[in-house]
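Morning F.,

Quick status update on the modeling queue. The single chain you submitted on Monday has been processed. Sequence for confirmation:
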Amino acid sequence: MPPTRILTKRDLNRALLERQVLLRRERTPVLEVIQRLIAMQAQQPRPPFIGLWTRIDGFTAPDLATLLRDRQVVRVTHLRGTLHLLTAADYLALRGAMQPVLTGGMHAILKQRGAVLDIEAVVKAAEGHFGKRPRTFEDLRTTLMEEFPGVDERAMGYAARMQLPLCMVPDDTQFAYGADTNFALASQWLGRPVPDAGGVEDLLLRYLAAFGPASVNDAQCWSGLPKLKPAFEALRPKLTVYKDENGKELFDVPGAPLPAADAPAPVRFLPGFDNAILGHQDRSRIIADEHRSLVTTKNLQVQPTILIDGFVAATWDVTLRKSAVTIAVKAFGSVPAKTKKLIEAEAASLVKFLAGAGPRCDVTYA
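Structure tokens below.
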């Protein structure tokens, strides 16, 4: 048997960038890119649009908004109990495998409040509520308070969100969702029943294709599913196995790309919570351990980031005004003049994407 190949941090970095469509902008259909990424964090409406702009050559906001309105892509509660964009096909295929995570997260958050809830009755009432027509969660809480007087309405709403498959209904705004979004039963929105159970094998193979090579702990961190070692052992005959520089075993799907460690990596702006940053327990393949606290805030917000030579080297923020848009860059170290020019060119493209050709782009450094 040949010796196991050792992958360096730069090997893993370039593999991740290739699979996350970050080594070059591609002329690939939007639906195909979303499927390749499996799911895109969508706690706020705008970040997935930026995430696709940074990956797809010529991407425009209507490219995604149209897919959402045509129900080919959905915004739903998914990985780790947070909002994500997925293709409708992937949502139907993977939702069942995620249900244990959603249920476990619900019990962890509700704790004692959950013990006094009749969760089955609450979910049934919520299903009847949304079954009439798309409605807001504020409407739902009003209905639940009327049906279950004296019970914590926030706890009931959270239980419904975790247990009942729902899709957020897009509107006609630029980024497809306003401040007070309607929700619809996923089965009605998509015209198909949503499976309530599913195996994890397909999920893990998709994860490795999008984020591999990766360890068992990496997959657990990304998915929220615990105790995945037996599932990986069952898959082992189908997988390629590597080790990192510390001897940790990493799994991959056979034939997945492993670009050269010195492959050029362009400057890229990532939105907050991008799964390229959050897809592993050991994130040193894309962000140094000493920089993680500069990206994740005390209230667990994950800041928008800038990749330089493939690694997170700065955070960024945007202030939109009619005459000028300011991109504020907070670098983790000194930035050479040549790199600043690359950042500023990418920032100008981002401003054009967000605000059109009218406003001036100002880039500041801190």
